[in-house]
Amino acid sequence: MAIEPMQKARIAIHKSVSDDLIDRIQKLGCCQFIPGAPDGADEAALVPLRARLREIDDLLAEARFVTRFLEPFATEKGGGMAVALGDAPEYSMDQLAGMASGRMFVDAVREARSLEKKLSDARAGVSRACGLIAQLAPMSGLPYSLDFYNKGTERITGALLSVHSPDVRQLEISCGEKLGDQFEFFALPAAPKSETRIVSILYPRELAEAFQEILASMAATGHQAMRADVPPGLARSAGEEIAALEHDLAAFRAEESEALKEIAASANASCKLCQCLTDYWNISRAKLAPLLTGEQTEQISLLSFWIPKRALAAFKEAASAYENLIEVVYVDPEEGESPPTFLRNTGLAGPMEPLITMYGVPTYGKIDPTALTAPFFYMFFGICYGDAGYGMLIAAGLIFLLMRKNVTGVLEKFIKILIIGNIGAVIFGAVTFSWFGDSISSFSFLRWLAPLEKLKILDPMNDPMTMLAFAMALGFLQIMLGLCLAFAENVRKGDTFAAFADQGAWIIFLCGLVLGGLASGGAIGIPANMGWVMAAAGAAVLVATQGREKPSLFGKIFSGVMSLYNVTGYLGDVLSYSRLLALGLGSAAIAMVVNLLTHMVTDAVPVIGFVFGLLIFVIGHVFGMAINILGAFIHSLRLQYVEFFGKFYEPAGEEFSPLGITTQYVRIK
Prior knowledge:
Blueprint: E1 6-14, H1 15-28, E2 32-33, H2 43-70, H3 80-84, E3 90-91, H4 93-101, H5 104-136, H6 147-151, E4 156-164, H7 168-179, E5 184-187, E6 196-204, H8 208-220, E7 225-227, H9 238-293, E8 295-296, E9 300-308, H10 312-319, E10 326-331, H11 353-359, H12 370-385, H13 388-404, H14 409-431, H15 439-442, H16 464-493, H17 496-520, H18 528-545, H19 553-563, H20 567-576, H21 579-604, H22 608-644, E11 667-668
Parallel strand pairs: 3-11
Antiparallel strand pairs: 1-9, 1-10, 2-9, 4-6, 4-7, 5-6, 8-9
Helix pairs in contact: 1-10, 2-5, 2-9, 4-9, 5-9, 7-8, 12-14, 12-21, 12-22, 13-14, 16-17, 16-20, 17-18, 18-19, 21-22
């Protein structure tokens, strides 16, 4: 339907103009190059290309480093959202090339590396000082040099222990028993909320073995006495070391603060420069991809690509400047090769393309469901959202956004989907007389809008069955459309029998059941037998054909009869559309509850109650708009993906991805 016809081409380019021509093709954005160099490609010819690729990758790595390092400190943020909203800076490729060739980038990288080292060293110093202070704090009352516990003297050594407070006395007794009077025992008070105490024990070196026996016996009897780690290289007492460390900590924090100020001063300019150059080198890198994956000789680049047939004229015009140095041949796809799929829908269907490809890309040459999905999705969204006030506010806000911002790409399409869907909500809200719920009926100052009630056709709150019947009728219509599309696709492929047996019979059977049921209930003025005869005819075809792949007659008949059980699946699909009623009622119910709460608060307390009532009205309806728009979008989309697409859609295509200019931070003129 809206899948662009594609043409495959092969082009031979003389090396002297290959860069210029690829640059023009990239700006056109209409050629998808086919990767995979043919066997026998000249590897020597690829060497300079690979060298350029490595050079660009190195530059990209430097630019990304600066961006990653400075972006958290920059006050002027950029990125994909800014590009999508049209707020990104705009440059020409010549301007970006000028930035890349100057000294500014080299200086920015050197400065960023220096500042990163300065900040890293300062923070490492802060971390080390804080860690040592925390480690030494329990030892701050010790009168001895900490180095003594690591080295000792020629005759005396010491140990620093972390001892469970109740076990300190037992340790002292054990030392007296094993070491006699040849030791010094000093226990520091326990720190607040700590169950351990630091104990210093000094003893002669010749009693080291006896001291080890003390520790072993303490552990054997369940007493806790473990050696405390003493940082090496600290020659003063713990208190003196802590004082020195606090002085160092202040110096490191000053260095950190100074580094952060220097980073903040250069962040905006350097970050912006490197963001621009990141996009420039990504564009340059993309231009190398076709040359690296094509066949190369010493003088010639031989490339293959897909191009939409409607873009051939533009391509030929761009290539005409090099007609003496290129040769283009248009060829047919190879056996088993399928062109990529390029969707080109206009009008209301155009914005729906991202939702279609999110499910799967249509197979080239087969049905594009975009134009057929769009009216159902917009209608279902309007029914689910179902409030004219909500729809008007959101549609107006999004239209204002499109007018003020140069929104592009997928975001622009999503915004247009929401605008059209909310216009549908305005229409459905008007015919159900839902304007911020029942606000017109509830609040006297809105009574001047009462004539809008003349537009009311449906009343889902008081007559839900009519709304349910309408929703299910829409569902049945969409499911029948899906079967008709599958029928047409089988006919197009030449499998007419399958079309009539697999889709035609079900269409006749299901339509017959519906007509018979409606006629029996008096809803339509035709004889009920007409519907039942249609259903019987469709059922007979299904029984006769659905087991055609079975080898035996019994298997054919049995499979045919059992195929009629699939009617429950179609019934379930139609019942799924009852969610249109459920979500529409949900939106109306939330709005009515908000209005009721507003009334209760306003009537309960004079003056102040009006203020609180206004807050409840605004916050409640904003909540209702937010929560209901999410449900309306998801459930409307689910009906397309599950109930509709499952009947006919084959998403086995490859999306058309031409060589083009894609940016993350800037817009290209």
